[in-house]
């Protein structure tokens, strides 16, 4: 009983986004405010990009990160957890897997970084998802809300822009309005955003969920300024050669929860990840030698992430 909606401690978790908006119209207003903000195209300098099944946590005085962000969200949800006093903030891109563990990690990391700040509350903001035909977004919304609700810390929901409020019709087909967001780590301001550059090691990072690894990976150590891809392993993916021989349309239909509304680069990214899996069938041996993570540090001259050798 620790979820706070519109300032009131809740006994029950809302069953879906429609019930949330019906019982707490203030969330319609805050969602409308976000939807009225123009979309920004954010470059790679100062950006920490979070892929699907990843999370990252930082603080306002982190000199390496000005914006935390994620996009390409259709049925997934972006979750932001922030301590209003310290400004410590976590962002995750969740697809339904590993939610309980991710929520615990986000809250714990933000609490640890907020130690010493007497004032402030833990706030959560949810953006993404839409009224998809299979209600995938609603299932993820309920799982996320349930995870926060059973956590022993009071959590203030301050923004929920999802479901019917994040849906528009094009040719009779529901589409998401906002596909991604960024958060200014200095001010806490959230805005709709697109990220042409999604950071280093994208095919390797996408290979995690394509091969069925459910955990949400924490990809950043703000105390060291290191982006990190922790070691993981998967069994050789049977049929990967066959997958790569298929048409773009086949891959789109088979490997997306929302093929009608995917951004145009979706299939290209999936192909790159499948090719990576094909070339690295035993990542514990060929990718993560000696069980070492891949580390990247912000280059002082270019502002881009560069590998730590």
UniProtKB/TrEMBL annotation:
Protein name (Swiss-Prot/TrEMBL): Protein N-terminal asparagine amidohydrolase
One Pfam family cited in the UniProt record for this chain: N_Asn_amidohyd
Alphabetized GO MF terms: protein-N-terminal asparagine amidohydrolase activity
Domain of life: Eukaryota
GO cellular component: a single term: nucleus
GO biological process, one term: ubiquitin-dependent protein catabolic process
InterPro entries for this protein: NTAN1
